[in-house]
Design goal:
heterodimer, A: alpha/beta, five-stranded mixed β-sheet, 6 helices, 38% helix, rod-shaped, B: alpha/beta, 5 helices, 7 strands
Chain lengths: 170, 181
């Protein structure tokens, strides 16, 4: 009888001292079957593309809005004729050259406090019945030096007061 | 795609679609961006920033945007919330009118005539696509004397094109920062 060595369990290291298994052996014995693995490369590619897309398009999300201005013209109902001029509310904006400040006057009367005060004045006029929101023609007449910021601010105050016939002087 | 037959049987055919998807995504991104840029046609400007503004988003596919760019661009971060004093410290002069990705210097009379002609021509083309929304974007620091001639051109072109009768009136949308911004 051949000598029998007792069944001593081998260490893990001793059991798996296999440096290379040929492809043929692998296929024959099923050694080293393919492990399940998640292919991340393509996913990362796509995620990067999406990321780049959203980063770039985010620049276009501008917090802009518009205020609708129905301006007097030749055919539209807001056309200002000579008769209207008598009833017209002229909001004059003046600004010293090269100065960013401005002042407001309505039909020659000074309004102190900028567009906020103008809005309050218009609101008061509407409440007391002096100004008809629908019929009253308002002409914003800035001098050439007034900054666009102020013109839009005053225009916005008129729109807020729900005046419907607002025009800009040329 | 025909499968190869080897001694151990046919090799499974497979189509590697990863690079295909990559390229398709690139093309989609490219065309979306190009289309977006073409549609928006908006150079960066520091717009009027107003308290309690009624400015609201306009959703229309048929927009005509006219921009007035300043001689001295705002050097701070563009957008709402900038100090008004700083915004208005700049030169009030306008540099050019930008329309349809083309610049028309405001101090060049020929250029302004070209702008008027081009604007009227574009209105004529766009009228076929339905109602046109006219949008005026001007930098907050620009003085009114530079803006008024542009408004006059816009109004004049609308009248010439008999748009007033069709659209109801000469309506121009003035751009400012929105309240929720």
């Amino acid at each position: 009888m051949a000598d029998q060595t007792p069944d001593i369990p081998l260490d893990d290291e001793q059991e798996e001292v296999v440096h290379h298994v040929s492809q043929r052996k692998k296929r024959r014995k099923g050694v080293g079957d393919e492990e399940m693995e998640l292919q991340l490369t393509s996913m990362i590619d796509v995620i990067f593309q999406l990321l780049i897309y959203f980063v770039i398009t985010a620049n276009f999300v501008i917090y802009e809005g518009t205020i609708k201005a129905t301006l007097p013209g030749n055919n539209n109902p807001n056309k200002i004729d000579q008769m209207d001029e008598l009833q017209m509310l002229t909001i004059k904006l003046t600004s010293p050259p090269e100065e960013p400040t401005y002042s407001i006057s309505i039909n020659g009367k000074d309004i102190h406090g900028g567009a906020t005060a103008l809005y309050a004045w218009l609101e008061n006029g509407i409440r007391t019945g002096e100004i008809d929101k629908v019929e009253q023609i308002v002409q914003i007449s800035p001098d050439g030096h007034v900054r666009w910021q102020h013109v839009v601010n005053v225009f916005n105050a008129c729109v807020r007061a729900e005046l419907e016939k607002i025009g800009f002087a040329q | 795609m025909a499968s190869q037959v080897t001694k151990r049987g046919p090799v499974k055919p497979s189509l590697n679609i990863t690079p295909l998807i990559d390229v398709v995504f690139l093309l989609i991104v490219f065309f979306m961006l190009v289309q977006k840029i073409q549609q928006d046609d908006m150079p960066p400007l520091q717009l009027p920033d107003i308290e309690e503004t009624l400015a609201a988003e306009v959703k229309s596919e048929n927009k005509l945007v006219v921009n007035i760019i300043p001689e001295a661009p705002f050097e701070g971060e563009l957008g709402p919330g900038a100090e008004i004093g700083e915004v208005l410290l700049r030169s009030p002069e306008a540099a050019a009118v930008v329309f349809g990705q083309r610049e028309y210097p405001v101090d060049d009379a020929d250029a302004m005539i070209a702008f008027r002609e081009n604007f009227a021509a574009v209105i004529g083309e766009r009228m076929k696509s339905g109602e046109i929304v006219f949008i005026l974007r001007a930098d907050a620091a620009i003085r009114y004397s530079a803006v008024m001639p542009v408004i006059a051109v816009m109004q004049g072109s609308m009248t010439d094109a008999k748009l007033e009768a069709e659209l109801g009136a000469g309506t121009i949308n003035i751009v400012a920062y929105r309240e929720d911004s």
